[in-house]
Amino acid sequence: MRTSKVIGIAGGMGPKSGLLLFDYILKHTTASCDQEHLSVILMSFPKQIQDRTAFLEGEIEQNPAYEIGKLINKLAAAEAEVIGIPCNTSHTEKILKVVHEKCLPPNFKAKVLHMPFEVIKYLENDYQQYRRIGVLSTNGTYRSEIYKTYLENAGFIPVIPDADFQYNIVHKLIYDPHFGLKANTDKITDVAQQYIEKIITYFQEENAELIIFGCTELSMLNNFNMTIPFVDSTEVLAKALIREAIS
């Protein structure tokens, strides 16, 4: 039986992100029986971790980095060796830098993967035929410009929604307390479907050749009839965790 590292998932950002990541790990693991699957520890503490976008937009003062750091330390204490945080906004510098510099001990041994970095590397390796890349994300990730910067540095042309479309369409699709994806973890509401169609039309009119799902809630759209190619950041992270676990 092959040896492999234990995967840790820092879940709860948003409510279904850890489960979706775990499901992708199962999907992309080559296994013919229970014993050939990878060992995975999923911890989800959504009540403890403040909203990442709310922090980045100045709505709350408490940096969620500290609770994320506690969660990562708990995973490492449970013997996780390679860890994924299924939340793109958590990887913005104002949060992730604090996690690494103030929350993890100097002798921390587990490897914490960087979700947006893995997405860009995945595009460079498998999607070089596409140049104009659309980005769907939370307002926090949007304001940080992390994907815009990474795409430009890799030679891609980022297609970023204007502020009005981002705040009134994309943000509401994710965050609206009635029809948004965070509030409806078991379905895509009829209103959300209308917003998705507006988003697809927007990116088609902007000549985007591919869209990055740069928010873990957007993984729920995988079974939606997308008429434009997409890359799901949650799925990319799952593949990266498998790569590190079996290397």
Explain how this protein is built.
The protein has helices spanning 17-28, 52-56, 65-77, 93-103, 115-126, 139-144, 146-153, 163-175, 190-205, 233-246; strands spanning 7-11, 40-44, 82-84, 111-112, 132-136, 157-159, 210-213, 230-232. The chain has a 4-stranded parallel β-sheet, with helices on both faces. A 4-stranded parallel β-sheet has the order 6-5-7-8. It is an alpha/beta fold and 247 residues long. Helix 4 links the parallel strand 3 (82-84) and strand 4. Helix 8 (163-175) packs antiparallel against helix 9. The longest helix is centred in the last third of the chain and has 16 residues, at 190-205. It contains 10 helices and 8 strands. The radius of gyration is 17 Å and the shape is globular.
Number of DSSP strand runs = 8
Instruction: Note the overall shape.
Output: globular
Percent in helix: 40-55%
Biggest beta sheet summary:
4 strands, parallel
Structural class: alpha/beta
Oligomer: single chain
Percentage of residues in strands:
5-15%
- Gyration radius over CA: 17 Å
Along the chain, the helix and strand elements come as: EHEHHEHEHEHHEHHEEH
The averaged pLDDT comes out at 96
Regions with pLDDT < 50 over 5+ consecutive residues?
Answer: none
CATH topology value of the largest domain: Rossmann fold
**Cα distance, first to last residue?**
14 Å
**Number of discrete domains:** 2
Please tally the helical runs, counting DSSP H or I stretches of 4 or more residues.
10
Q: Quick one: CATH class of the largest domain? A: Alpha Beta
* Main sheet: strand order: 2-1-3-4
Return the CATH architecture of the largest domain: 3-Layer(aba) Sandwich
